[in-house]
Write a structure and sequence with these properties.
single chain, 131 residues, mainly alpha, two-stranded antiparallel ribbon
């Protein structure tokens, strides 16, 4: 149900599921994040993340900036257009997630976080083992 709601929300905002996931990761990780950080955050292959980043570059949503510590790595930074998109798309989504979580109550919320983390770690390991 959650995947379907996420996909429908992405489409209603003119994004794909992948693009919404990548945009949320860029917003969450922060300015100057790398594609590697995004891949680690959302457990998508590099090629998929690269495709979304290229789409965002072409649309003027992000820009790449050379990182002083490693000039070969480019940091991904939201442009003004990208920040506005995040205000309109990502922030309301995060607010809705927070409200849904609060409705559950403290005990159920803590248990959910524990179980999702456990599942997420296992899932990422399994996905890496088959790719």
């Amino acid at each position: 149900h959650m995947d379907k709601a996420y996909d429908e929300y992405a489409k209603s905002r003119g994004l794909t599921y992948l693009e919404l996931d990548v945009l949320e990761a860029i917003y969450g990780i922060g300015s100057g994040c790398t594609q590697k950080q995004i891949c680690e955050s959302i457990c998508y292959p590099k090629q998929s993340v690269n495709l979304a980043v290229k789409t965002f570059l072409d649309s003027g949503i992000v820009e790449l900036k050379e990182q002083p510590e490693n000039r070969r790595n480019k940091g991904i930074t939201l442009t003004e257009k990208g920040r506005k998109l995040c205000e309109e798309v990502i922030e309301p989504m995060i607010h809705a997630e927070d409200e849904a979580f609060l409705e559950m109550g403290d005990e159920a919320g803590h248990e959910l976080v524990r179980l999702v983390q456990l599942y997420g770690e296992s899932y990422c390991r399994k996905m890496k083992s088959i790719s």
